[in-house]
Amino acid sequence: MDKYLKYIAHLRRKEASLINFNIKTQTHRITPGHAEGKYTPENSVRCTLEDHILAHKIRWEVYGETGDLSAVSMMTGRVNSGGDNVVPVLGAYATHEVCKRNKTGFWDPQQQRLNALKGNTPEVRKKKGEGGSRGNQVIREKGVGVYAPGQAAKSGRASGMKRKGFNIEGLGKLKYSSEDRLSLSETFFDYYVTFGKTW
Question: How far, in Å, CA of 9 to CA of 45, rounded?
Fold first, then answer.
């Protein structure tokens, strides 16, 4: 067993604890995409971003494939720029600005008209309806989303708070509006939906 496969065995032992402690992970393909590896259970292992970088670094040292070196470079750039998602997000914003300026893609008026026409045909409406029905059936069977235990009561309280506002001890009533909602954190809103008082 070479150094890379030993490291993969180490990651497999570590995988369960990452999932149990709800640590943010990525999926590393043991045989990477540049070597025709697929995302299958046998070819995948969950690991942290740092371990993912190290896996590709070790694989490059063992097998000398430049695709691994490229992966190391790209993922290290993400870490150094402040987070895993920073690079793709910044790239998406840059592309968005160029398309907006040049009136291409989403911003092309002709494309918008075509999209509106395509999305309003009986066939598309039927497919959307079927997709929604299937999705609703799945979440009902799994008991998640709106069908999660206690979710109906929570939704009712959230709706009440949207209409009547928050009763915050010592501060009085905080009126709820779509503008105010943007300034409230998810944690704050969830806390008052669960424990707060409506007026």
Answer: 9
Enumerate residues 6+ apart whose C-beta is below 8 A from 46.
15, 18, 19, 25, 26, 27, 28
| Nearest of 61, 7, 64, 4 to residue 34 by alpha carbon | 64
| CA 198/CA 176 separation, integer angstroms | 11
Whole-number Å distance between alpha carbons of 71 and 132: 37
Tell which residue, 5, 14, 10, has the closest CA to residue 59.
5
Phi, psi of 197 (to 5 degrees): -115, 135
User: Helices (DSSP H) in the chain: which residue ranges?
Assistant: 3-20, 49-63, 66-80, 86-102, 109-118, 122-142, 151-164, 178-183, 186-195
Percent of the chain's residues with pLDDT above 90: 25
Distances (CA, A) of 114 to 22, 49, 109, 125: 43, 41, 9, 16
Confidence grade of residue 3 (pLDDT, cut at 50, 70, 90): very high
